[in-house]
Amino acid sequence: MARNEEKAQSLLNRWTSMKQDFANTFKNRRPYTASLCHTLRDAEKFRRQIVREISRKISDIQNAGSSEHIIRDLNDEINRKIRLKRHWELRIIELGGPDYGKSQPQVYESDDDVVHAGGYKYFGAAKDLPGVRELFEKPKETNEKKRSVDELYANISPDYYGFRDDDAELLEEEKLVEKAQLQVAIEEWEAQHSGRMQGNRASVLCAQ
Fold first, then answer.
1. Which of 93, 76, 79 is nearest to 35 (CA)?
2. In which band, very low, low, confident or very high, does the pLDDT at 24 lie, cut at 50, 70 and 90?
3. Are 34 and 88 within 8 A, CB to CB?
4. Is 60 exceeded by the pLDDT of residue 94?
5. Are the CB atoms for 133 and 79 separated by under 8 Å?
6. Share of the chain above pLDDT 70, in %
7. Could you give the CA distance from residue 116 to residue 135 in angstroms, rounded to a whole number?
8. Strands (E), the chain
9. Distance of alpha carbon 148 from alpha carbon 184, whole angstroms
């Protein structure tokens, strides 16, 4: 009888321990959104977790030997973590805590080696990805001097504005060209018509 009681007590202790471990697992898990956290202590703890995750991923992305899709995924994840960290910093302010965005600016957010594009940041090897470096290259300066408006107008002749379209000599030349083109067209038509007439006569003679 005593043996059965010991077994029952042992099972109860194991079940209680498992239940406590299960509860601690969810208790220590970071909420999906910062608004679900209601204590300043937990909010600061979760912010520190995110900062460590960002630092670790920035260290990983320095490896230029990684494949392109891995580097892009790491860079996307770092940007997502930075936005998430800012959400937790705002939640800390709401809970009465300090403004870490002002009191503890992160090096990776102000580093000159980090390039920015519309709020999106490129870290480490991501800066050398195809199409990324071109976004930040300055246009090459040319030694060609820009011409002034006066210089541009100096090379414009009256023909540009059509002032000579009604010139008498031009009109006469146009008439001569039109007349010559008309004469050529008439001769071509007569030659074709004459050939057809001869062909018809030959067909009639053969039929007779």
1. 93
2. low
3. yes
4. yes
5. no
6. 60
7. 10
8. 115-117, 120-122
9. 50
